[in-house]
TrEMBL record:
<feature type="domain" description="Peptidase M48">
    <location>
        <begin position="122"/>
        <end position="348"/>
    </location>
</feature>
<feature type="transmembrane region" description="Helical">
    <location>
        <begin position="92"/>
        <end position="114"/>
    </location>
</feature>
<keyword id="KW-1133">Transmembrane helix</keyword>
<keyword id="KW-0472">Membrane</keyword>
<keyword id="KW-0479">Metal-binding</keyword>
<feature type="transmembrane region" description="Helical">
    <location>
        <begin position="261"/>
        <end position="280"/>
    </location>
</feature>
<keyword id="KW-0482">Metalloprotease</keyword>
<keyword id="KW-0645">Protease</keyword>
<feature type="transmembrane region" description="Helical">
    <location>
        <begin position="58"/>
        <end position="86"/>
    </location>
</feature>
<keyword id="KW-0812">Transmembrane</keyword>
<dbReference type="InterPro" id="IPR051156">
    <property type="entry name" value="Mito/Outer_Membr_Metalloprot"/>
</dbReference>
<dbReference type="Pfam" id="PF01435">
    <property type="entry name" value="Peptidase_M48"/>
</dbReference>
<keyword id="KW-0378">Hydrolase</keyword>
<dbReference type="GO" id="GO:0016787">
    <property type="term" value="F:hydrolase activity"/>
</dbReference>
<comment type="similarity">
    <text>Belongs to the peptidase M48 family.</text>
</comment>
<feature type="transmembrane region" description="Helical">
    <location>
        <begin position="237"/>
        <end position="255"/>
    </location>
</feature>
<keyword id="KW-0862">Zinc</keyword>
Length: 357
C-alpha cells in the first residue's frame, strides 16, 4: 500500500504504536454491528482495550519457544568468537525485529511470502463488487485493502499484513455472490481485530526454525515419494527407503540442532525448550487461531452474512475428514471444527433475531 509522503521514521513509529496501542473506540469507523466483545458502555472501554493488548501479546508469548530457538541458532556460528560474539549476534537479531514494521511493498509480500497473484480482469470485477458491498456494510474504506487470488482447489481465504485479502480460485469461481461476500466479510473481521503486526513479528523471529522445518520436511517428502515408487514391486525396499531416508533427514537436521542447544543453554534447558516447541507452542498457536476464526465468523454474521457463512461451513464440513484421528488432530488445527463454527454462527444469528437487529 502507498504511504504517501510520510517519512520512514514516522511510518515505522505508527506501525509500532498500532501493535502496542489499538485505536480508541471513538476513532474507529462506526459499523452497523457490535464488533466482537466491544461494548457501547464507555465505562468498559478500558476492558476492551486491555483485552486487545493482552491477546496481541499472547501471539508473541506462544511463539516464545520458536523465538528463543531461532535466537540460539543465530548465535551458534558466532560462539566461536566467545560469549561476546554470541551475545552480540543475539542482540542484533532481536533488534532486527524492527524490519517487520518496515513499509514494505505489499505486492512483494503477497507474491513471495504467500504465493498470491493479482486477480485477472474478470476475477477483479467479481471481487471488486463483493468487496465494496462488504466494506460498505462494515463502514470501512475498502481502498485500504488489496485483493489477491491464490490458485488452489481448496475452499479457503486469507487475511495477511499490509491489508492483504486473498481468496482461492475455487472459492472465487464456485461460491455464489453472497457466499463470496460472506467469505470476504470473515477476512475483513481478521483485519479489524488488528493483531497482524504481532503475528508478523512472531513469524520474523521464527524464520530460522521455519527454515530447519522446511529442510526436514523436504527430506521426509523425498523419502516418502521414493518409497511410494517402490511400494508395489519391492515393499521391503520401500520400507527401508522410508526408514533410512526419514531417519537420515531427521539426523541431519536434529543432531546439529540438539548439539547447538546443549552447547549454549545446557541439557535441562534444551530439553525444556524442545518440549515447549513440540507440544506447548503448537497447542497455543492453534488455540489462539481458532479463537480468531470464531470472532471473524461473528463479524460476518454481524454484517448480515450469517446464512452464507453457515452454508460455506457446511460445504467445508463435507470436504474434510470426520474420522476419530481427525477429531484428535483438531487440537492442532488453526481452524475450529466446521460443526463448532456452524453452532457458533447459528447462536449469533439467534442473538440477532432476539435483539431485533
Amino acid at each position: 500500500m502507498s504511504h504517501g509522503g510520510k517519512s520512514f521514521g514516522s511510518t515505522l513509529w505508527e506501525r509500532v504504536l498500532a501493535v502496542l496501542r489499538p485505536a480508541p473506540r471513538g476513532q474507529r469507523p462506526e459499523p452497523i454491528y457490535e464488533f466482537l466483545e466491544y461494548t457501547p458502555n464507555p465505562l468498559l472501554w478500558p476492558v476492551e482495550t486491555w483485552r486487545h493488548r493482552l491477546e496481541s501479546a499472547a501471539v508473541l508469548v506462544v511463539s516464545l519457544p520458536s523465538i528463543v530457538l531461532s535466537t540460539v541458532l543465530v548465535c551458534v556460528p558466532f560462539a566461536v568468537f566467545g560469549w561476546w560474539g554470541a551475545l552480540t549476534a543475539g542482540t542484533l537479531w532481536l533488534a532486527s525485529g524492527a524490519l517487520a514494521f518496515l513499509p514494505a511493498d505489499d505486492a512483494v509480500l503477497a507474491r513471495v511470502a504467500y504465493g498470491f497473484r493479482r486477480p485477472r480482469p474478470q476475477e477483479q470485477a467479481v471481487l471488486a463488487v463483493a468487496w465494496e458491498n462488504v466494506t460498505q456494510a462494515a463502514g470501512v474504506d475498502g481502498s485500504d485493502y488489496a485483493l489477491w487470488v491464490q490458485d488452489s482447489e481448496d475452499l479457503n481465504a486469507f487475511a495477511a499484513p499490509g491489508g492483504i485479502v486473498c481468496v482461492t480460485t475455487w472459492a472465487l469461481h464456485t461460491l455464489d455472490s453472497r457466499q463470496l461476500e460472506g467469505v470476504l466479510a470473515h477476512e475483513l473481521g481478521h483485519h479489524l481485530e488488528g493483531k497482524k503486526y504481532t503475528a508478523t513479528l512472531a513469524r520474523w523471529y521464527s524464520v530460522p526454525v521455519k527454515l530447519i522445518g522446511r529442510v526436514l520436511g523436504f527430506g521426509l517428502t523425498r523419502a516418502l515419494a521414493a518409497a511410494e515408487r517402490e511400494a508395489e514391486e519391492a515393499p521391503g525396499l520401500a520400507l527401508a527407503i522410508l526408514l533410512l531416508g526419514g531417519l537420515g533427514s531427521a539426523a541431519l537436521v536434529l543432531i546439529p540442532l540438539v548439539a547447538a542447544l546443549l552447547l549454549l543453554i545446557g541439557p535441562l534447558a534444551a530439553l525444556t525448550l524442545l518440549a515447549l516447541l513440540g507440544i506447548a507452542e503448537p497447542l497455543g498457536r492453534a488455540r489462539l487461531s481458532q479463537r480468531e476464526e470464531l470472532r471473524a465468523d461473528r463479524v460476518a454474521v454481524d454484517l448480515g452474512y450469517g446464512r452464507e457463512c453457515r452454508e460455506v461451513h457446511h460445504e467445508w464440513l463435507g470436504e474434510h475428514d470426520d474420522s476419530p484421528l481427525a477429531g484428535y488432530l483438531h487440537w492442532l488445527s488453526t481452524h475450529p471444527p466446521a460443526d463448532t463454527r456452524i453452532e457458533a454462527v447459528e447462536a449469533r444469528i439467534h442473538e440477532h433475531r432476539h435483539s431485533g437487529k
